[in-house]
Amino acid sequence: MSIMETPCEVEKGRINCRIARNNRSNAELEEYEMLQARPRGVQPAEDPSALSVVDVKMYNDLNKADHHTEKYDNPNLIVRRGQEFTIGIVFRRPYNPQTDNVALEFVIGSNPSPTKYTLITVSLGKSDQPSSWKGRILETGDNETKVGITPAADSIIGLFSTYVTIITEVMKKRTKRTSQTDFYVLFNPWSPSDQVFMANENERQEFVLNDAGVIYSGVINNLVKRPWSYGQFKHGILDACLFVLDFGGMPLQYRGDVTKLIRTASAMINSQDDDGVLVGNWSENFSLGTAPTAWTGSAEILLSYAVQGGVPVKFGQCWVFAGTFNTLLRCLGIPARVITNYSSAHDNMGDLRTDIILDEDGRVDDNLTVDSIWNFHCWNEVFMQRSDIPAVYSGWQVVDATPQETSDGYYRCGPTPVKAIKEGELSYQFDASFVFAEVNSDVVFYKQDRYGRTRLVSTNTTYVGQLIVTKSVGSTEPEYITDNYKYPEGSPEDQTTMKRATALGMRRFRTTQPDPDVLLQLQASQQNNYNISLIFLFTNLSKETRTINLALTGKVDFYTGSTRSVFKFFTQSVTLDPLQAKQGTLIVTADEYRAFVQGQPFLSFVMYGLIQETSMYVTDMEVIHLDVPPLSVEVSGELKVGEDMFVTVKFTNTTDTDLNDVTLRMEGTGLLPVKVKTYSQISKGSTVKWIESVTPQLPGPKLLLACLDCTFIRNLCGQVDVFINPDSQDD
Questions:
Q1: Which of 400, 431, 557, 709 does the annotation list as catalytic?
Q2: Is 235 a catalytic residue?
Q3: What share of the chain is helix, strand, coil (3-state, %, to 5)?
Q4: Do 10 and 151 belong to one domain?
Q5: Which residues are named in the active-site annotation (predicted)?
Q6: N or C: fewer beta carbons within 10 Å in the chain?
Q7: Higher per-residue confidence, 321 vs 19
């Protein structure tokens, strides 16, 4: 019976065979397939002079170097589609292309089919069977024939099995499947015919081959670099990434389409509705798992998910989702980077308004305020050609695995073109309106009195999306890419974009209320003694006296903008002479907020002022990120392959409190697996030091990083970049 005659399970009458969705168990093709009838029970006779296969060579080292896959810690061959690789076939006698008929068959999945491109046949010699993959004889010498195989530029990505088939007039005889000839096919940013082609080599090195980086957090005026190990080449990671697609039930036949693959993977990185990789947790209780701030990279997360057979890993927040998604994308060959949007709007109504409700006294009312402005939010960009929309919108695309809103029934976002966001062209797939609001939403303040009556206070059209950054190519410094997403605020191009977006259904807040004739600006900064200095600047634009009744709310916030606790409420009256500018200062002592922080390093201040003479309002907001004690990572010894070196992680508790139940993680890309150490207590004023010995096995640039985590201090990491020199014998 041929492979095409293998019975299939009927899937409830809709289709003849179940759709193959699993790359973990490729089908075993029959060793003998008769082309002519033979008596039952009679085995085919062996012809001593017939062509037969002795060995199949995959030339791993040669092919991996040509395909930029030599960094993968995987014993099998890994190639990129649309690019030729070499296979050596050793026959029992010399191969004669004039008389011998040989084919190579490549299988992926449990139900291979030529029409679904899960069974690929590449013919050599007499046969001229058409195929989406190409093959040619490179060299024939003695009994070995070297063959060049070029997977289609839109080939399915995943693990293929290899069969060499000898075809005669009466039968096909195949080699038996062996794991040594299984090989992986990945996307190919080096191939102009691939959907993910990227022309610049420096960018390919960064966005595909760099296995470490930094993810930016903090606030606009205090960018915090968080080192992150992507680890896409570590042992088991490629299989773990394919397992994610398998567990998500993605049909194999669609895995050559990067758009469809990204949509599936975006949903599967979070576990909100499909038992995906990571459980989101934005509370303060991480006792049932690992705090999001404690992770040093993605490999530990993906390996745990795969080894446990699809049990979601606890816990993640936006940078963990983005870092893990980045690993999967780069591992499969898709150029990707992590983006940070500061003052990122999460608008529950899907329009261009982020509403903040103040109570009668001017405090932020958290019970009524359902929209939020995240101090920062991380997502990913992928570089790809979009064949489903006009080609002008190819290039960088926003994708987001953090579960915020559903898209086609799943918590996922994108891909949506960055250029479409900038131009307000929101009719193109996918989820453009949501991303547009994240970077363009207006902040609208309302005040509600004791009777439930709500009045407009003010509107801020510039607060959201003030700064968008990513890691620079070849550097850990930020690249400022705000201009990729939006035109300068208020420019003619910006106004055109907004008109286009509203014409396509985005609702923007409009008011006929005149602007107040007093300007308010609030500035906040942390001093060396951890006190906070607040400066509020008033400018009276009128030729009359103005009296402002001020109310200031000081809060400890989660990074999502949600309030953890209010620690200060301050009121004051300020009188301004005509056209006068006046500055006021308020010092918030560390003692006022310290007891409320508990690992949340964001303090936000909202100032509200009522102008008595006009009954109009002025408002402003400022968020600061509290500094934390440093965590140092240092190396000593010979930085050479095969020589011992030492990594020292050091931390001094300079806070005024003891730190309890402290976790310290350390890892090094290409150097050191994840190691974890716990301390029951680090007393105030004390120092801990952790030393690990490492023997480098591979030369080149490496990153060593460590993160310390406890309930009092979160998001504390350190790093050191090192270059490992080759062994002198290899020079």
A1: 400
A2: no
A3: 15, 40, 45
A4: yes
A5: 318, 377, 400
A6: C
A7: 321
